[in-house]
């Protein structure tokens, strides 16, 4: 109800004395004032009723009106039956402060005015509540009928008027629409993890974002994010967002269960190919993209070995891969020592001249892996191996072997987090890193051990001499000149080297064996 609506009710006999330009104000409630200091009892939006029994002087009028305006009162209805005449200074004070003032007739009670206002407000609230209830029911029905998490969050976003999305503990978008870039989503998720409480508000480049946590799941948490500050939401908005969060998470869990079925079928095919058993490609890989589809394998290994942590890294990287190339599907498969991910890519476009399909952005994958690894402080190594793109079952098997080789290589290097593609293994040193460190060390000791021990005991430099000899293609004179020694001294050292090694380095096979051992020796220094 507005002040002008109240003034038009003839039976109340109200007379406007001041504030004709502010009669469109909405009345939130009504309050009867018996004291000059009334402002502390007001919340704002009230129509104040007073019999002016508090009035003793013009100063009281100024004090009373100023307090009402400061507290947010929208209007004043005053009676002066207890006074000789209506106080003119009250009218002047209302004029100065822009507060609408209405005089009530002596034969009309304040209870009539109060009841009229309260009845109108109650009716308006009941009507509004009914509209809200009907709207909420409509939205909740739409949400419950949505077949996917994206559809759930789309309905929620349209209703709330703000973007809504679900993201992983690492900030990867799982469903819904977000204006934030990948790195800012990661920072948002990190801020939510570090915050106290299940719901927090964080500032972003797009504005305030409310993040609703999922504390039961830890690393597999699905965080609900809304581009809006929840502290300004109505009760209905809170209920709709809470319900949408529950339904969207359920839809994601349902999709994950369906994907797990595909993963089991795919794992069965891979195992059959590995052991030479017949494979019905139509019943397994076809569930990804087809029997002649294009596949790439990625393998994740961790130290200390942790299947749970490897699965988390695999899920995040596979999720990004699906986002990077539209139409990509994936299956996650446990393997010895880690987790393998089979990425099934859509058919190549007609203008794909190289036929190889999109290449992974290894630098981007390295950055993603490093961010994900920050959530796993207990790990000393996170290794990601990437195989080449292949077609059909044979292509899957080849790509999986390549991914395994690249993952082992990455695991044996010094980097805490490393993404290694099979294309990176183009040197002997790179290939050797695919072997376990203890295997490499054992080979070095069996080939070079006697020479290394002799140098240590006699303080000689026969290993360095051997390295120089092989690097110079056997030119003893150039080596002798570079080391400021007589060539006969060098010949003696070479004979001693051959004697200790038990090999003739002038022979091709012996020379190759020794060069590999020297390469490993340099790698382990």
From TrEMBL:
Residues 5-121 form the Purine catabolism PurC-like domain. Belongs to the CdaR family. Residues 292-407 form the CdaR GGDEF-like domain. InterPro entries: CdaR-like_regulators (IPR051448), CdaR_GGDEF (IPR041522), PucR_C-HTH_dom (IPR025736), PucR_C-HTH_sf (IPR042070), PucR_dom (IPR012914). The lineage of its organism: Bacteria, Bacillati, Actinomycetota, Actinomycetes, Mycobacteriales. Residues 462-520 form the PucR C-terminal helix-turn-helix domain. This is Purine catabolism regulatory protein. It comes from Gordonia jinhuaensis.
């Amino acid at each position: 109800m507005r002040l002008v609506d109240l003034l038009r009710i003839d039976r109340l006999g109200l007379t406007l004395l001041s504030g004709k330009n502010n009669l469109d104000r909405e009345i939130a409630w009504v309050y009867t004032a018996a004291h000059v200091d009334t402002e502390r009892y007001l919340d704002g939006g009230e129509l104040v009723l007073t019999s002016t029994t508090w009035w003793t002087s013009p100063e009281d009028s100024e004090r009373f009106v100023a307090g009402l305006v400061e507290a947010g009162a929208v209007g004043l209805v005053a009676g002066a039956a207890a006074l000789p005449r209506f106080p003119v200074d009250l009218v002047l004070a209302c004029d100065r402060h822009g507060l609408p003032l209405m005089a009530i007739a002596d034969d009309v009670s304040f209870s009539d005015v109060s009841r009229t206002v309260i009845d109108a407000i109650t009716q308006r609230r009941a009507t509004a509540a009914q509209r809200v209830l009907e709207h909420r029911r409509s939205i909740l029905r739409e949400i419950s009928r949505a077949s996917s998490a994206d559809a759930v969050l789309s309905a929620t976003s349209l209703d709330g008027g703000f973007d809504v999305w679900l993201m992983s503990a690492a900030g990867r978008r799982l469903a819904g629409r977000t204006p934030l870039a990948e790195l800012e989503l990661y920072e948002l998720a990190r801020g939510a993890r570090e915050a106290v409480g299940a719901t927090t508000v964080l500032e972003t480049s797009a504005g305030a974002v409310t993040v609703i946590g999922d504390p039961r799941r830890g690393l597999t948490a699905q965080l609900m994010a809304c581009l809006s500050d929840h502290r300004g939401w109505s009760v209905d908005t809170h209920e709709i967002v809470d319900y949408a969060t529950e339904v969207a998470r359920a839809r994601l869990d349902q999709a994950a269960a369906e994907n797990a079925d595909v993963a089991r079928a795919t794992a069965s095919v891979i195992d059959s190919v590995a052991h030479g058993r017949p494979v019905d490609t139509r019943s397994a890989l076809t569930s990804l993209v087809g029997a002649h589809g294009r596949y790439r394998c990625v393998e994740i290994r961790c130290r200390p070995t942790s299947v749970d942590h490897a699965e988390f890294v695999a899920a995040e990287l596979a999720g990004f891969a699906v986002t990077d190339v539209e139409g990509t599907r994936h299956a996650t498969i446990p393997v010895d020592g880690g987790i393998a991910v089979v990425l099934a890519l859509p058919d190549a476009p007609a203008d794909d001249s190289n036929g190889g399909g999109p290449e992974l952005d290894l630098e981007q994958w390295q950055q993603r892996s490093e961010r994900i690894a920050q959530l796993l402080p207990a790990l000393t190594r996170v290794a990601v191996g990437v195989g080449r793109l292949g077609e059909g079952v044979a292509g899957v098997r080849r790509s999986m072997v390549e991914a395994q080789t690249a993952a082992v290589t990455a695991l044996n290097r010094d980097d805490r987090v490393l993404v290694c593609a099979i294309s990176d293994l183009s040197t002997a040193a790179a290939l050797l890193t695919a072997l376990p460190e203890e295997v490499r060390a054992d080979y070095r000791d069996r080939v070079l051990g006697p020479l290394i021990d002799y140098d240590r005991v006699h303080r000689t430099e026969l290993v360095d001499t051997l390295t120089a000899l092989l690097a110079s293609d056997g030119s003893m004179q150039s080596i002798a000149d570079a080391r400021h020694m007589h060539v006969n001294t060098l010949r003696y050292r070479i004979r001693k080297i051959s004697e200790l090694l038990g090999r003739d380095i002038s022979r091709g096979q012996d020379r190759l064996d020794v060069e590999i051992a020297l390469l490993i020796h340099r790698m382990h220094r």
